[in-house]
Structures are given as structure tokens and as C-alpha cells.
Amino acid sequence: MLKAKCPQHERCDLAALELRLWLFMAVAALAVAGALALGLALARTPGVQDWLPSGPAFFHKALVTHVVFSFQIWLLAMLAAASVQPAAPRWPGFVGFALTICGCLALLLVTLAGWGEASLNNYVPILDHPLYFVGLALCAGGIGGALFRPRTGLGLVASAYAVALLCFALAAFRLPSDLEPAFRHERLFWGGGHVLQFVNTGLVMWAWQRLSGQAQTRLSALAFALLAVGALAALVIEARLDPQGLAWRQAYTQMLWYLLPVPPMLLAGPLLWRLRRSLDWRSLAGLALLASWLVFALGGGAGFALGAGDTRTPSHYHAMIGGVNVALMGLVHVVLLPRLGRVVRSVRLVRWQIGLYGGGQILHALGFYLAGLAGVARKTAGAEQGLDSVFKLVSMGLVGIGGAIAVLGGVLFVGHVLTRLVRHD
């Protein structure tokens, strides 16, 4: 006799399926970004570059999509995965996943076909082609569909994401279409890109809380509330200032300086104090927390002592994103995969993943900062860097060594997690 299946169990099964899909997309985005990074190396190889789509120009086009997948798709798909709850309606999540998949395919199609000109603007670089904009819109809308549903988790972070989307839309509406393309694209993504940093910070704050195993307190609730209020300040900027003006651009920079640092410090400080004796720092959760806090703090400190056009700027944002990433890596292993019954088979391997990625990011960011102090310009390569001293050479050597170590940790993470998502043993 067949037994009737409990509706509660059906909801849990569908929630597990949705979580698995979003996790697969997030980690696959890192894999795609890695493959595009290999394409970047090939694009710099004489002879080989002529066989790539769009020839030597493929370097900048692959760089654009590498950044989009590694900094946008990965993080936002992780936000969608973290927001999956059994009690929430399932269809917005599945529809959102399908839209995001279509958007990712559109981004890859434009890149591999060699269409459009690369625009290396801050936060969201793009290829200037209509299908690329369609792909970005599908990804943004699809992830939004997964977040904006009744009783979804991370509600205040989701509200910050809504503000980011609104800022993108307002910029597209307010900026004249006949502006010089590079200037228009920079201003189009500047405001919303800044607000996305509030989203990323909220995501890492949530990861810290889950990895710590601590219940939410009034202080942590206040930290998330302040984060949401800080993101809402963008609407004041949009209402009062012209997106073509210098004051509008500077207001967003000041928003990050004065409003973004407080929420993570308000959450992490008391959390660290409570855990100083109770948490096993050799555990996976403890190691991920420690690595994330160290890298994140390094990036935050660098953000208040930036130079004008030198490599201290990439030192700041690589460390900030690195701190978010290593916390999310720990979250995947400690919280999200166990929800799916995928327990850690090799604790030692996961420790190596977290240690290599976190340690590599520290060396990478430190090298960039030291090189910036010596005057090495950002967004340059080869002879253009002007490495005319031992200090500059050693500093950029740290950048390369640290980057290679972090990439190795990322490769181990991607391979391990994809294997655990596909296999169930």
C-alpha cells in the first residue's frame, strides 16, 4: 500500500531541491570565472590570442565577464541560497533560478561570440551589447524573484538589494542616451554598485552569525537594521543630486565611508568577545570566521587609506570581497551542505581550502597595498607598471604568490563542493 506523503515533507523536499540548485549555480559561477581567467592568460600568449574570439580584444571581454561571474553571480546566487526556507512559496525561487540561468547563458554567449566593446567601469563592468544588458537584467530579476517572497530569510539584506536595483533603474532613466558611452556606463552602475556593497556586507554578517552558532541579539538586530538604513541613504542621494555631477559621485563614496563600516563592527565585535573562549578556532566554523575577520579587517583598514589611482584600491576591494568569500566557503561546508545531507568527508581537505584561500588573499592584498605605497598604478600590466625598484618587485611578487595560493584554495573549494552536490554517498 502506498503511503500518503505529508505536505510538510513535500515542502522540505522542494526547499532542498531549490537550495541545491542555487548552490550549484553559485559554485558553477566560480568555475566559469576560473575558466575565463584561463582565457585571460591565453589572450596574453602570442600566437594563441589570434585564435580566440575577437582576437587580442578577447582579453578585456573575458575580463569583464570574469568579474561579473566571480563578484556578482557567485555572491548573489549565494544570497538566494541562504534565503531558502521551507515555509516560503517555492515557485518564485524556481522561476528565479530559470531566469538567472538564461541570463548567465546570454552573458557567456556575448562574451564567447566576441560581441560588443568592453567597458571596464567600476562594480559592474559590461560588454556594450544589447544581449549583455538583457543577460544582466535576467540575472538581477531572477535573483530578486528568489528573495522577494513572504517570510524569506535575510529580509533586511533583501531590502538593500531592492534599493540597488532601484538605483540602477533610476540611473538608466535619468542619464541621457547620447552621453559618451564610457561615462554613461560608469555612472549607470556607480550608485547601485555602491549599494550592492551593503548587500555583500549583510550577507557576510549573516554568515558570521550562522558560523558562530549564536542566536540573534538586540545588538545584532540593530546592526542589520543600520545596514538597511544605510542602503536607503542612496535614495536620498538620487532624489537630491544629478547623476552626471561630481557631488553625486562623491556622495556615494562618503556613504560607504561613513555608513557601511558600523554594522559589521557592531556585529563582529561583541560576537568575537563572546566566542573568545567558547569557540574551537581549529574547527571549520572557527577557522572560517577567523580567516574572514582577518581578511575583511585588512580590506576595511585599507579602504580608509587609499591612494589616487594606485594599487591600494584593488588591495582594499580584493580583501573585502576575499573576507566575504571565505566566510561563505565556511557557510557552505558547515551550514548549507549539511542541510542537504552532504556532510564533510575530509575535514583536513576543507581546512586546507579555507587556509589557502584566506592566507592567499592576505598576501595578495598586502602586496597590492605595499606596491601602491611605492606608486605602482592600478589597471596596468607588464612594463606599464614601472617596477623599477626592489621594493616594487617584491611587493608585486607577493601579489602573484598570494593570488596563486588563493586560486588554489578556490579550485579545491569548487571541485569539492560540486562533487558533493552531484554525489550523495
From TrEMBL:
<feature type="transmembrane region" description="Helical">
    <location>
        <begin position="94"/>
        <end position="115"/>
    </location>
</feature>
<feature type="transmembrane region" description="Helical">
    <location>
        <begin position="315"/>
        <end position="337"/>
    </location>
</feature>
<protein>
    <submittedName>
        <fullName>Uncharacterized protein</fullName>
    </submittedName>
</protein>
<keyword id="KW-0472">Membrane</keyword>
<feature type="transmembrane region" description="Helical">
    <location>
        <begin position="63"/>
        <end position="82"/>
    </location>
</feature>
<keyword id="KW-0812">Transmembrane</keyword>
<feature type="transmembrane region" description="Helical">
    <location>
        <begin position="287"/>
        <end position="309"/>
    </location>
</feature>
<feature type="transmembrane region" description="Helical">
    <location>
        <begin position="390"/>
        <end position="414"/>
    </location>
</feature>
<feature type="transmembrane region" description="Helical">
    <location>
        <begin position="130"/>
        <end position="148"/>
    </location>
</feature>
<feature type="transmembrane region" description="Helical">
    <location>
        <begin position="21"/>
        <end position="43"/>
    </location>
</feature>
<feature type="transmembrane region" description="Helical">
    <location>
        <begin position="155"/>
        <end position="176"/>
    </location>
</feature>
<dbReference type="InterPro" id="IPR036927">
    <property type="entry name" value="Cyt_c_oxase-like_su1_sf"/>
</dbReference>
<feature type="transmembrane region" description="Helical">
    <location>
        <begin position="188"/>
        <end position="207"/>
    </location>
</feature>
<feature type="transmembrane region" description="Helical">
    <location>
        <begin position="349"/>
        <end position="370"/>
    </location>
</feature>
<feature type="transmembrane region" description="Helical">
    <location>
        <begin position="219"/>
        <end position="237"/>
    </location>
</feature>
<keyword id="KW-1133">Transmembrane helix</keyword>
<feature type="transmembrane region" description="Helical">
    <location>
        <begin position="257"/>
        <end position="275"/>
    </location>
</feature>
